[in-house]
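Predict the 3D structure for this chain.
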Amino acid sequence: MKKHLKFISILMFCFVLVGLTGCASKKAQKVVIYTNADDAAVQAMEKSLNQAGYNGKYVLQSFGTAELGGKLMAEGDKIQANLITMSSYFIDSSQKKYNMYENLNFTTNSIEKYPTYYTPILANTGSIFVNTQVMKDKGLTMPTSIKDLSKDEYKGLVSIPNIMSSSTGWLLVQGIMSQYGETEGKVILHKIIVNCGPHLEASGSGPITKVSDGEVAVGFGLRYQAVAAKASGKPINYVDPIEGNYSLTESIAVIKKSDSATTKLAGDMQKIIITKARVELIKSYPVSLYKGETVANLNKPTYSKKFSEPLTVELLQKHQNFFKAAK
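Done. Predicted structure below.
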């Protein structure tokens, strides 16, 4: 009897030991964060995570939008990341293809309704901007529309982002397609591209740099950059085009993984970024996304619009083909 009891005790000890080992193996690993955000957004996210005690518990890696989008669409939930911040249309399209994201585990209080598996971290809005000194020196008329950028007087003096490499360029194409349709729009876009010459930029920030430096007179890009440039004393002014100020959001989502502990940790970080980093993010990207947020009137576009179709990777590719045909 004693031998049996001793054997049972040893067996129970082994089960406990195995259980403890199994629990240890379920300890959360470092959360891998992939992002297409620029430096200001990355700094705001890192600051919020570090202040919340997550320093050393995550690894953040930055990608261009096209590169990260390609990884999402090719790899699905096999991607190395646990948490991503990315252009919302790529998240929507990859979810449709792979069903790869966890549902949010907290209430966001967002102003608009979003899918259950992501919530936005920031939004960018497009506009025209000009170098007032160059405009004066060359006797140019002030544009009021995207179509105006196709005028002969602006030849060699326009800079826009290339939609093939920059999502900011999509904001311009959405305005043209919505207002003029494919046939007339293609003629207008062709003339704009001709007027750009060598100033068709790979980066969304390229046009504001060219306009600020006086290399060109007129540009199209992110509205907040022009507002900030003018506030800093540069000879910059911004013009809300009558075709509309279209916007793109970048959102945050947790990827489904078998490692539940790390996935939970990623969800906790997701909540911190939304509840804490927005204080800094809205300063650099002044668009209200959540209830209670306010921005100065100068950061409110005059003609805020949404494209008539849902923004998806497929629609982006369609508009990229339209852009290539216009060249």
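DSSP finds ten helices and ten strands in the chain.
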